[in-house]
Amino acid sequence: MKVLIKQAQVIDPLSPANGTIQDIFIESGIIREIQPEINLEADKVLPGNQLFVSPGWVDIFANFADPGYEYKETLLTGSQAAAAGGYTDVFVIPNTKPVIDAKSQVEYICHKSASYPVNVHPIGAISKNAEGKELAEMIDMRASGAVAFSDGLNPVQSAGVLLKALQYVKAFDGVIIQIPDDKTIGTNGMVHEGIVSTRLGLPGKPMMAEELLVARDIKLARYAGSKIHFTGVTSPKSIEYIRRAKASGIDVTCSVTPYHLFFSDENLVEYDTNLKVYPPLRTKDDITQLKIAVEDGTVDCIATHHLPHEYDSKILEFEYAKNGMIGLETSYSVIKTIFPSMAENRIIELLSINARKIFGLADATIQKNNRASLTVFDPGGAIKVDAGSIRSKSKNTAFMGMNLKGKVLGIINKDQIITSN
Fold first, then answer.
1. Is 332 a residue whose pLDDT tops 90?
2. Other C-beta atoms within 10 Å of 220: how many?
3. Can you tell me the mean pLDDT for 209-217?
4. How confident is the model at residue 372 (pLDDT cuts 50, 70, 90)?
5. C-alpha–C-alpha distance, residues 387 and 398, integer Å
6. What is the DSSP annotation of 126-190?
7. Which listed residue, 54, 132, 241, 386, has the most CB atoms within 10 A of its CB?
8. DSSP-derived secondary structure letter, 387
9. 112 in helix, strand or coil?
10. CATH superfamily placement of domain 56-359
11. Among positive and negative, which fits the CA dihedral 53, 59, 62, 64?
């Protein structure tokens, strides 16, 4: 297939064309020409109208619920949602049924998604059945295609088990991903412990549960000389620990979710179950500190924590609703709405460049003779979130009905082009 992108501003710090407006000609999935003007016949032309193009975006923490929970999402519908949100690469968590804790499960994900336009990368479980007790065969899973290792929604509680995992992955320069949460603290907490939880009469989860695990795991990573990535960070104190760890040379990185930057616990006053998320939403003051960490470079990536749920898991009493919301399709627009003046270069670092570096993904630099793995977007555009436009199988989002800034136009990947609505 031949694709011609007309008059697009290139956002890629590794590309010789960075910051310039170019025509890009792609043939058989390879970038053949990058010139100020190209007049070649193509099967598909994307006309220049405030177009921006960057290396394909990467989400490092999403649940495609396949196998075992296909009524929530499938590898196909998850990939369609990812493409609509501008993502060419998605890491899927191992909390499926069965858990992705052996090479056969990794191979299932890789083989089933091979023809999709989105690269679906399995995250292998650290422990068998993601129970945090006995290490899974991580080397076998790595050889079969696991991109990183995590117990996903069940962060490893045992320091001994996590230390062994950190030492184990050093053999292949692997990365451990943790949601930092000591589950023995605020075990039954549903929302952030504070004034709002008291007012709503809901059991609270203190930020200390997060901070303790961040502090512990940083020490374990330093001792092991290994790599750890914290995702879903919500505490300013956690950010402080991570800043200090980076400054001291420890190989620690972190990511935040769009919805933790957008919503606070005050938005829970109507008991909207779409806002029941894990980790819980924090206070406005906490969000201000998280935003500073995003702007100053402490936060390395934006992770959507795309957690789809069917109607029956969300439309019921707050106490019984499942945690999580979908996020792949709204991620860029939410970030643009929160940070309207943030440079596109920084946004692309958060959405693509840094994740590729941290997890050793294939090069996606926009230059001649490289494979085309591109996201096309319009920072000046806008979207309205509505159920009819959502491609995910589930519709559980607290952004429903909102007008957001920034618009994804599509992706080009694996010699396929997918355009959004």
1. yes
2. 21
3. 98
4. very high
5. 11
6. SBGGG-SSSB--HHHHHHHT--EE--TTS----HHHHHHHHHHHGGGT-EEEE----TTSSTT--
7. 54
8. G
9. helix
10. Metal-dependent hydrolases (3.20.20.140)
11. positive
Cβ-contact 405, 382 below 8 angstroms: yes
* pLDDT average, residue stretch 130-136: 97
E-state strands within 257-337: 301-302
Residues sharing a CB contact under 8 Å with residue 420, sequence separation 6 or more, in sequence order? 83, 84, 86, 407, 408, 409, 410
Cα-trace Rg, the chain: 21
Burial class (CB in 10 A: 0-12, 13-18, 19+), 43: exposed
Q: How far is CA 198 from CA 58, 187, 277, 320, in A?
A: 38, 16, 18, 18
How do the domains of the chain map onto residue ranges?
2-52+368-390+403-419, 56-359
Which residues, 6 or more positions from 201, have their beta carbon under 8 angstroms from its beta carbon? none
Task: Give start and end residues of each alpha helix (H) in 349-412.
Answer: 354-359
Q: Are residues 194 and 241 in contact, defined by beta-carbon separation less than 8 angstroms?
A: no
CB 339 within 8 A of CB 295: yes
Give 33-87 pLDDT, tens digit per residue.
Answer: 999 999 999 999 998 778 999 999 999 999 999 999 999 999 999 999 999 999 9
pLDDT, the chain, mean: 97
Q: Letter for the amino acid at 359? A: F
In Å, how far are 228, 347, 368, 387 from 16, measured between CA atoms?
32, 19, 10, 40
Q: How far apart are CA 301 and CA 60, in angstroms?
A: 8
The length of the chain in residues reads 421
Q: If you average pLDDT over residues 173-178, what whole number do you get? A: 98
Residues near 357 by beta carbon (within 8 Å), at least 6 away in sequence = none
Angle between helical axes of 159-169 and 208-224 (0-180°, round to 10) = 40
**CATH 3.30.43.10 at 2-52+368-390+403-419, yes or no:** no
Q: Where are the alpha helices (DSSP H) in 297-413?
A: 311-314, 331-338, 344-348, 354-359
CA quadruple 21, 23, 29, 31: dihedral sign: negative
8 Å CB contact between 117 and 374? no
The H or E element containing residue 109 is: helix 103-112
80: its two tokens: 């369609």
Taking the whole predicted model, whether its pTM rises above 0.90 is answered as: yes
